[in-house]
Design goal:
37% of the residues lie in helices and 13% in strands. It has 420 residues and is α/β, with parallel strands linked by helices. Strands 1-2-3-7-8-9-10-11 form an 8-stranded parallel beta barrel, surrounded by 6 helices. A 3-stranded antiparallel β-sheet has the order 4-6-5, with no helix packed on it. Strand 9, helix 12 and strand 10 form a beta-alpha-beta unit. It is globular.
Length: 420
């Protein structure tokens, strides 16, 4: 049996037994005042991991794949293989494949319908299994395949009637919140947290994925003039918290903690190694808000706006890795890459949590981007800068379309300078 990860060791002790018996993994009392570990999150690895060189492959709204809904299976497979070939050709070693983009699935899930982004009609069987095919073909090319899931987003519109009739959101309308023209599950409901975990853990159990990956969307990004309508769940479950923000942060941490424990249980039961990580917005808090924050003045702070205390998760060792989306150029006044990287390096130091930096390849050469992004060497300079920090274990590029097409030549420059 292969050893479980350091994160798995920690979270198994925190709560794997509880979920097997059907009870909650953690409660408000469990988390209140929980001390951060002073060192690593468990036993050291037998050998260091090679640097991760990854790309995100987004399926929501056909961002990277498939190019349009309803592609014939053979054509859809060809497109997917071309992106995997591009990753291998660029000497990458990991693909973060978005398999649950809007509370629907890119595999035959017993919990959720087939994704609307495959066929254009939610629930319609595409005639093949994209996730199973992607795992097989990625591994043939020496690529890790991480199942990327968005936890709470239901739809890019706000009309439940447009969802397939059997959709869980239609069967449980009290789970649903309309916000900013979209539909979301309410993270404050324990039954929602349990359900979404069941949904994406199905992929972890059924396929030999190398990881389970969350993006930056927990509670949605703020929309001016709108409030996220979770009054009922707050009234039911928010007792004992100083304010709604603290309660929301715990809801997000419970999702992460419980998911970590359940992934650890899969690893323990099967002998597989499945890594669990998050790719958050890269500013936890600005220093002006919190002395422990980064020297930035970003308009969004994950702690305050998305209710995701990513710094605490690292200190508790709940994750195998963090891949913050450091999507700013060197010298950017509001959030300088040169300030973001050392902050994250300090944050993960001694925790056992690996650090991979999300890189904005999509900005390279973009006509609306400022001058630094017009230089094809900008991203290569990022990797050179990050190499100063031993905590940085690799980089993940957004996204697959730009890895393959590389219109500005920035990816080719990264490969030539760093991936020989």
């Amino acid at each position: 049996m292969r050893p479980i990860t350091r994160r798995s060791f920690t979270v198994a002790a925190l709560g794997a037994t509880a979920w097997r018996t059907g009870g909650p993994v953690a409660t408000a009392a469990d988390l209140a005042g929980h001390p951060a570990p002073s060192g690593g999150a468990g036993p050291a690895r037998a050998r260091p991991r090679p640097a991760l060189r990854g790309m995100w492959l987004a399926t929501v709204a056909h961002r990277d794949w498939p190019s349009r809904p309803g592609l014939p299976p053979a054509e859809a497979r060809r497109e997917l293989l071309a992106l995997l070939d591009a990753a291998a050709g660029r000497r990458l070693n990991a693909v973060f494949f978005q398999v649950r983009p809007t509370a629907d699935a890119l595999w035959p899930s017993p919990y959720e319908p087939w994704s609307v982004h495959l066929t254009g009609q939610q629930g319609r069987d595409p005639g093949w299994d994209p996730l199973g095919y992607a795992v097989h073909e990625a591994h043939r090319r020496g690529l890790e395949l991480h199942a990327w899931c968005n936890p709470y987003r239901i739809a890019l519109h706000d009309d439940p009637g447009r969802l397939t009739p059997s959709h869980p959101a239609r069967r449980h309308p009290h789970w649903v919140v309309r916000y900013g023209g979209k539909l979301y599950y309410d993270p404050g409901l324990p039954e929602v947290r349990r359900f979404v975990q069941d949904a994406f853990l199905d992929a972890v159990r059924r396929y030999r994925v190398d990881g389970l990956h969350f993006d930056d969307y927990f509670y949605p990004y703020p929309v001016a003039g709108e409030e996220f309508a979770d009054d009922a769940s707050y009234a039911a479950y928010g007792t004992g918290f100083p304010d709604r923000a603290a309660w929301r942060r715990q809801n997000t941490e419970l999702l992460v903690r419980e998911t970590a424990a359940r992934v650890a249980a899969v690893c323990g039961a099967t002998g597989r190694r499945v890594r669990f990580g998050v790719g958050p917005f890269a500013v936890w808090r600005n220093r002006a808000t919190d002395p422990a924050g980064s020297d930035t003045c970003a308009g969004v702070q994950t702690y305050d706006d998305l209710y995701a205390d990513t710094r605490r998760w690292a200190r508790l060792g709940l994750l195998d890795y963090l891949a913050p989306q450091a999507y700013w150029h060197l010298g950017f006044e509001a959030a300088d890459y040169a300030r973001i990287v050392p902050w994250w390096a300090r944050t993960v130091a001694g925790t056992g949590v690996d650090l991979y930096l999300g890189e904005a390849l999509y900005k390279a050469g973009g006509p609306a981007q400022p001058a630094p992004w017009q230089d094809p060497a900008e991203l290569s300079r990022h990797l050179t800068f990050a190499h100063r920090y031993p905590q940085v274990g690799g980089h993940v590029f957004f996204a697959a379309t730009e890895v393959a097409a590389d219109p500005s030549g920035a990816m080719a420059r990264v490969v030539a300078d760093h991936y020989r």
